[in-house]
Design a protein that fits this description.
Elements (H helix, E strand, L loop, with lengths): L1 H26 L1 E10 L5 E6 L12 H11 L10 E2 L15 E2 L1 H7 L2 H23 L15 H4 L10 H12 L7 H9 L2 E5 L2 E10 L14 E10 L2 E11 L7 H17 L5
Antiparallel strand pairs: 1-2, 1-8, 3-4, 5-6, 6-7, 7-8
Length: about 280
């Protein structure tokens, strides 16, 4: 009897933490936009919040950068080229950032220095042309005003801005091989996108996290942006989505991962309204 009571108490506590712990986290962030689009019909199945305002894409920029990288021949496969971290490059992402990095690892672990090597190799003019042709936001790679750092951080709380609507329009074109890049480049970019499962759907997506800059150029870590963008597949049906939140208080961990986790937790209930 005592063991059964302990088991029931533990289960009740776990349920309480899941329900109210998640609610507390949501209470300290605001939904900017959640938008879901059916790629076959082009219909917007769900749109909540302001999905037209542009903000920093953060690491979701790796998706168009992957297409451009494969199309330009800078990326060859999920395993090539292998690049190695060098002293002075960003290393805050942990041990995987300081080791050998392939395109698949780059995408999975959001390795900033790998992105920077690609953007430097392409140059601002070619990056601007790709982003413009892809319809990816304002296609501005100038960087922070007066700092000439666009190739290092245009996509990280800087000049490059994109809206959730533009994200899903880009993704729908990517899934349809409809971008002005080779079909092989688009397929290879899709192949290295991280996959998970939720509610019987296969979810392929990319997180993104960035903190706005204050006037003194310090980061406002209590107002972090958290993206999760990608596509969901089941039974031949494909939906593209963008989920964007902004913190209202400082949290531990990445806003992008928290945005992803919140989206995946809600997905079984949300997708149930879309039919088969």
């Amino acid at each position: 009897m005592r063991d059964e009571f302990r088991r029931l108490t533990t289960c009740a506590l776990a349920a309480f933490l899941l329900l109210f712990g998640g609610a507390a986290s949501h209470a300290q962030s605001r939904l900017i936009c959640r938008i879901i689009l059916d790629t076959e019909s082009g219909a917007v199945l769900l749109e909540e919040g302001d999905c037209t305002a542009r903000v920093t894409p953060a690491s979701t920029f790796k998706l168009p950068l992957a297409v451009a990288g494969f199309d330009a021949g800078l990326l060859q496969s999920r395993d090539q080229p292998v690049m190695h971290w060098q002293e002075g490059e960003p290393d805050w992402g942990g041990a995987s950032w300081r080791g050998a990095v392939t395109p698949a690892i780059w995408m999975r672990d959001s390795v900033v220095w790998y992105s920077q090597r690609l953007t430097r190799a392409m140059g601002a003019e070619r990056l601007t042309r790709y982003a413009s042709d892809f319809g990816y936001g304002n296609a501005d790679f100038s960087g922070d005003p007066g700092f000439d750092n666009g190739l290092e951080r245009a996509w990280i709380a800087s000049s490059l801005q994109v809206s959730p609507r533009e994200q899903v329009q880009f993704l729908a074109r990517l899934l349809g091989d409809d971008l002005p890049a080779s079909a092989e480049a688009q397929a290879q970019a899709r192949a290295i996108t991280v996959q998970s499962e939720a509610g019987g759907w296969r979810i392929s997506g990319k997180t993104g996290a960035a903190y706005p800059r204050r006037a003194d150029r310090s980061f406002d870590r209590a107002r972090g942006y958290g993206w999760f963008v990608g596509w969901a597949e089941r039974g031949g049906r494909r939906l593209v989505f963008a989920h964007l939140r902004q913190d209202m208080a400082r949290h531990e961990g990445s806003p992008g991962r928290r945005s992803r986790d919140a989206f995946l937790a809600d997905w079984p209930q949300v997708s149930a309204g879309f039919g088969d």
